[in-house]
Amino acid sequence: MSLAVLTIVSVAPVAASAEPTGATVTWAVQPADAQGPDGRRWIEHTLDPGAVVTEHLAVRNFGDSPVVFALQAADGYLTDKGRFNMLTSGQESVDGGTWITLPETVTVGAKQTTVVPFTITVPPDATPGDHPAGVAATVTSTGGTVAVQSRVGFRVMLRASGTAAAAVAVEGLAVRYERSWNPFAAGGVHLTYTARNTGNVAVIGDSTARVTEMFGLADRNASAAVPELLPGDGRQVEAHVGGVWGLGRITTTVEVTPAVLSGDPGGAEIRPTTTTVTVWTVPWAQLAVIVLIGALLLGWRTIVRRRRRQLARLLDQARDQGRVEGRESVRAAD
C-alpha cells in the first residue's frame, strides 16, 4: 500500500519542488489569461446561478525536463492558522470545487509555461454567498512504498449573486479577572471567545470589549481584530482590558462589526453582534489593605487611650501627693 503526503496550497503563486523520477522538478501555478500569467494572486468572480465562465491557469516548469502535472480542483478552506488550503485528492468536494472543470493532466516542457483553460459552471440552485475553491498542479514522487504528492496552486473565490450577509457570532465568551500584585494599582480583564462566521460571505471584523464596574461609574475598553473567516468558520479571539479594579460586579460587553472581505460590499447586509457577560469579584487585596489600616487605626487609638489614662493617673497621683504635703505643712506650722 502506498502513502500519499500533500503539501499546502499557496495563497500566492510560488514555486514548488519535487523529485518524481530522480530529477528535481520546480514549478509554479498562477492565474492567467489566454496569453499567460496576468498578475492576479487568485481568481475571484461573482456569478449568477447557471452562469458559465472560462478561466485560465498557467503552469510554469522551471526544470530541465518535460513534466506531466496532474490538475485538481477542490473545495477551499482555512487552516487553524488562517492559511488557505484545499481538500486533498482523497476528500470529496461538495461546494465550489465541484463547479470547476479542468483537464486531468497537462504536460509542460522544460523551461516552458503552458496555459490551461478551465470552466466554472454555477449550479442553477446555488445559494447566495461565497463558495471557496482552489486549483492546483500536482507531482507525485515515489520512493519504495511511499508516494509523496506535492502540489501548488491558488484560491478561486466564487460568489453566487444574491444578498450578501456579513455576520459574526460570539460563542463561548469567557472572562477572567487578573489582579495586580500592587493593591494600589488596577488589574485587568482577559477574555476569550470564538468568532464564528454565520453569514454567507468571507469576512474580517473589528471587535470592541467594554468592561464596566462599580455599577456603571467606571468603564474601560479595548479592541481586537477578527481574522478572515469563510462562511461557517470559527476562530478564537483574545483581548485584554486594563485599568479594571475588580471591585465587585464586572460587566463585559463584546461588540463585533463584520466587514465583507472581497467583492463589492455595496448592498451587503452588515449584522453587528453584541454579547454581554457579568461576573463578580472580591477585591481581596484592597480588603486586606483596609483591614490592615483598620488594625493600625485601632492600635493607634488604643495606644492613645492608654497614654491618656496613664497621664490622668499620674496627674491624680500628683494632685493627691500635693494635698498630702499641704496638710503636713499646715500641721508643722501649728
UniProtKB/TrEMBL annotation:
Superkingdom of the source? Bacteria
Instruction: Write the record's keywords in alphabetical order, separated by commas.
Output: Membrane, Signal, Transmembrane, Transmembrane helix
Q: Establish whether keyword Transmembrane is in the entry.
A: yes
The regions listed as transmembrane in this protein's record are: 284-304
Signal peptide extent: 1-18
Q: What is this protein called?
A: DUF916 domain-containing protein
